[in-house]
Design a protein that fits this description.
Layout (H helix, E strand, L loop, with lengths): L2 H15 L1 H8 L5 H24 L6 H25 L5 H8 L2 H11 L7 H18 L11 H23 L6 H23 L8 H29 L6 H16 L6 H19 L19
Helix pairs in contact: 1-10, 1-11, 2-5, 2-10, 3-4, 3-9, 3-10, 4-8, 4-9, 5-8, 5-11, 6-7, 6-8, 7-12
């Protein structure tokens, strides 16, 4: 990896890892649904003009937009909302750690949907990662702070990300540029949340300067600019760019502890290390039938 790519990788990890911190701040002013709608709209406002300027327009084709709608639900609207809901009661650092299980969910869905010839090393990584998840949730009774409805909701969000990778590879890869696909996804996801807001997002908004700034950062930088930086890394380094997944929980935990006074639970930290080992083992495996489903894709965004 070149020095320039290394710098981009660190910056991207900071952007995506800090997303959980900014979610916690933005929730001080608005509900999870309001927050998700606003960050998607801001992200789409960043990417759509870039696509029009750089490529002359958005993707075309009714079938393609149908697949984009599914990808937008699985990779944007649903997990963004679930993570925001979870963080009403869950520490931002713990949410970041749970997000690190996403690549393991990708492998699990790859197997569940009938892929053949999955490398043994990848299966071992999945097993190790599952063990790390058990340590984090401690279902034997020590994990009351994580094994709650909020923790399960965050885990469901990570699973949604994982399923979105498999779906996107099967139905969207190669149909348009990654930037165009992501802009389309964010536009559709914004529409999905716009329909949800009248039902679940009409709570009074209490404007706070810190929350508004956090929302702007989430939408413009984390959701919008983060995609652009991610695509540059993929173009320069290919699947190697997926190692950003290892850095995100570190950033989330450090920021939560330093800026939000969140406790550093030793059990959660140990579980995070085990999960990351599992992810590392999985991503070192040779490519299976699905062309490296663990690589970052246009639906990826942490938090």
């Amino acid at each position: 990896m070149t020095r320039a790519s290394t710098v981009r990788l660190v910056v991207l990890a900071m952007i995506w890892g800090s997303g959980f911190f900014f979610i916690a701040i933005a929730l001080r002013s608005m509900s999870p649904v309001q927050l998700t709608f606003a960050r998607l709209a801001l992200g789409a406002a960043v990417l759509a003009p870039l696509v029009i300027i750089a490529e002359g327009g958005l993707p075309r084709g009714r079938r393609l937009w149908g697949h984009l709608a599914v990808a937008a639900m699985l990779g944007n609207a649903l997990p963004y909302t679930l993570f925001a809901l979870a963080q009403v009661h869950l520490a931002s650092g713990v949410a970041g750690v749970i997000n690190a299980t996403t690549p393991l969910w990708t492998v699990a869905f790859q197997l569940a949907l009938g892929s053949r010839g999955v490398p043994l090393l990848r299966l071992i990584g999945l097993t190790v990662g599952f063990a790390g998840t058990l340590i984090i949730f401690a279902p034997w009774g020590e994990g009351a702070d994580v094994a709650t409805a909020a923790g399960v909701i965050a885990l469901a969000a990570a699973a949604s990300y994982g399923l979105s990778y498999v779906y996107q590879h099967r139905y969207l890869t190669g149909r348009a540029s990654p930037l165009a696909l992501s802009a389309g996804q964010l536009l559709v996801a914004t529409g999905l949340l716009a329909v949800t807001v009248p039902v679940a997002g009409l709570q009074p908004i209490q404007l706070r300067t810190d929350a508004v700034l956090a929302l702007l950062i989430l939408g413009v930088i984390t959701t919008g600019a983060g995609y652009v930086l991610n695509y540059r890394l993929i173009a320069d380094e290919g699947p190697t760019a997926s190692i950003v997944s290892y850095l995100i929980p570190i950033v989330a935990v450090v920021m939560g502890a330093a800026l939000l006074d969140e406790p550093l639970n030793p059990r959660v930290l140990v579980g995070a290390v085990v999960v990351l080992v599992g992810v590392a083992v999985s991503t070192r495996a040779p490519r299976g039938p699905i062309d490296d489903p663990l690589r970052p894709s246009s639906s990826r965004s942490a938090g």
